[in-house]
Amino acid sequence: MKGDIGVIGLAVMGQNLILNMNDHGYKVVAHNRTAEKVDEFLQGPAKGTNIVGAYSLQELVDKLESPRKIMLMVRAGDVVDSFIDKLVPLLDKGDIIIDGGNTNFPDTNRRVAALKEKGIHFIGSGVSGGEEGARFGPSIMPGGSPEAWPFVKPIFQAISAKTENDEPCCDWVGNDGAGHFVKMVHNGIEYGDMQLITEAYQFMKDGLGMTHDEMQSVFIEWNKTELNSYLVEITSDILGYKDTDGEPLVEKILDTAGQKGTGKWTGINALDMGIPLTLITESVFARCLSSLKDQRVEAEALFGKKESIVEGDKQVWIEALRQALLASKIISYAQGFMLMREASNENGWDLNYGNVALMWRGGCIIRSAFLSNIRDAYDIDPELSFLGSDSYFKGILENSMSAWRKVAAKSMEVGIPMPSMTSALTFLDGYTTARLPANLLQAQRDYFGAHTYERVDKPKGEFFHTNWTGKGGDVSSTTYNS
Fold first, then answer.
1. 311 among known catalytic residues
2. Which helix (H) or strand (E) holds 174?
3. Which of 243, 80, 293 is nearest to 177 (CA)?
4. How far is residue 60's CA from residue 58's CA, in Å, rounded to a whole number?
5. 168 with 145: CB under 8 angstroms?
6. Which 3 state secondary structure label does DSSP give 459?
7. Active-site residue among 63, 69, 183, 264?
8. pTM of structure
9. Which residue in the list 190, 199, 329, 410 is annotated as catalytic?
10. What is the pLDDT of residues 389-435, one digit of tens each?
């Protein structure tokens, strides 16, 4: 009996996905460039299962049912292209290659088009959930060649996480790089969520002077509210974890954050598309700032920087912080969906935003209770341009506004950096302001560069130039957006 699917790459995610597929009755053929890895896997975690090994790509292809389905769980970039180049001569028309890594979506666009010319289908699929999700049910976001989806759908939906209503957290996202784009935005929101939580932690620790046990209790309680989410849950676990000497382990970890690029890609795409992804972009910059550890140590001494204690009723501040975190988190998702909406329009993907929220409801790192409310919002209005306009989320934002402003103002007053939480509030203030000062900005552009402007008392699309000094002349520059 031949295999149902082949998986190349036996690192943690690859191994766990294979074991997950085996649990659901699929025969998997496992391959790794290093033969020893195949042996270690077969004699270790895969021992006693129906999983079989392949020590060459030809052997892998020969052991699979047609149309062959081969999933790459390898490092994004050149490694993926290298495997594709080696596989193509061994495959038949109609066979399917799947990239399950964190790939930048233009690469998926390119690969879909190139393989289509050879008669081979390509799927670029985001997979979220980390080690545990891969093993017991991840969120899976496939896109690419739609002809391939019916052959892959049973496997992917079987191994994916399920909602409380037993709905699979996996569905077809769209053509070309749509799946990897949605995964990229997922990771951008993940960056934002993590940064917001760390800002709340610093406000409690440095501002309110709370112990780690106290902070752990707060996050446990918060996880019983609308903030219920995987990241809030693991934060409570982390804050309660003690090192061998009984001290909180988290305080012994160097405060320089790493990143693998997906948050940066999200910010770059937002800038390219003109979407104000302020909170997520600030979270990326916060990681960049954290990496300047030596400079920060010197600057703290140079400026004599000290945070002031936040005075007042601690429980009142904790509730205000909860509301500020919740409101900011909503803005993070709202901005992410704004970016997906623009990308869908530009690329003709016809994304189903309610389905995206469903796919993120379980298995993935940003899974949270209010994703069900996001799905409801887009079921009511599939063309919803701003998540905060939905009645449920609008209510939360309005009710949280006073507490949100209070926390943001206090953080600046006492010197606690909260870049993502404050930028979220500033975004909402800008988004809900009918007239912004960009009229002065346009006047400045016209003054020094004759870039022209539109007038509120004239039809939109009609441009004007003023000779502001009497010396500049009346010739205007070509009108363009920048």
1. no
2. strand 174-175
3. 80
4. 5
5. no
6. coil
7. 183
8. 0.91
9. 190
10. 999 999 999 999 999 999 999 999 999 999 999 999 999 999 999 99
